[in-house]
Amino acid sequence: MKTGVLIFSLIIVATIAAFAQDATPKTDVRQGAQRARIHEGRKEGDLTRGEAKALNRQQRHIRRTERRAKADGTVTDTEQRKLNRKQNRASRNIRRAKNNGVQN
What we know:
Layout: H1 2-21, H2 25-44, H3 49-70, H4 77-99
Helix pairs in contact: 2-3, 2-4, 3-4
């Protein structure tokens, strides 16, 4: 009986951990797209090394914020809004750095 309860408890914990990792799939996809935009801008010469470094630092900060939001197993609406706001700001910064003030 104790073994059954232990196994059941482990399954529940594993399930919760799995959902905690996938609690922000849109954030993860968007994060990957932004990293690709930075890499592309650097490769095409639209971004200097310093600009790319600053943008990558901002991406690390967003990942750190996401990890902290996931730490308790639940990403609240407030935490998700904070992540979206940070990603919006990062996207805007990438666009501005790549265009250097020139709008297409």
